[in-house]
Amino acid sequence: MTPISWLIIFVVLLGIEIATMALTTIWFAAGALVAFIFSLLGAGIELQLAVFVVVSFAVLVLIRPFAKKYVNKGVTMTNVDGLIGKKAQITEKVDNSRGSGAAVLDGQEWTARSLRDDRVFQAGDLVVVKEIRGVKLIVDAAEEGK
């Protein structure tokens, strides 16, 4: 491949990484950059491709654990993720076998279902949100004293 081909690949992969900031293409951009250097030095296509694959894989294996640990470590949960663990008040009997139930959480009414099919909650019960499936709160009993 010509050096310009590797340079184009590098720029495209780097552009994707900058646009997404998802740490998905940066590894391949590093491989393309090293392959670009090898192509400038006159290496054959087989060696260029081998260098691209080896460098991309090496950078992925060596740097990804560090990047996962330190990049985006201060991410704040937003929207639905921020509701997990909060307490809600049951407003309509939650009974999975009847497909009924509602709860109020942060002033909004949600459809609610019990985490365990054998557990029924009555109107007025305080529950904790364990997960969210679609538009339904999946709830369980709130621990006493918390």
Would you give an account of this structure?
There is one protein chain. This protein is of the alpha+beta class and 146 residues long. The chain is built from 3 helices and 5 strands, in the order αααβββββ. The chain has helices at residues 3-20, 26-40, 45-70, and strands at residues 87-95, 100-105, 108-114, 126-133, 136-141. A hairpin with a 2-residue loop joins strand 2 (100-105) and strand 3. The longest helix has 26 residues, at 45-70. The mean pLDDT is 89.
Compact overview of the structure:
By secondary structure, this protein is α+β, with helices and mostly antiparallel strands. Helix content is 40%, strand content 25%. A hairpin with a 2-residue loop joins β2 (100-105) and β3 (108-114).
Low-confidence stretches: none
> How many helices does DSSP assign?
3
Order of helices and strands: HHHEEEEE
Give helix % range: 40-55%
Please summarize the sheet with the most strands. 5 strands, mixed, barrel
State the strand order across the main sheet.
1-2-3-5-4
Mean pLDDT: 89
The whole-angstrom Rg is 26 Å
Total number of beta strands: 5
Distance between the termini: 64 Å
Computed structural class: alpha+beta
Shape estimate: rod-shaped
Characteristics of this structure?
146 residues, alpha+beta, five-stranded mixed beta barrel, 3 helices, 5 strands, 40% helix, rod-shaped
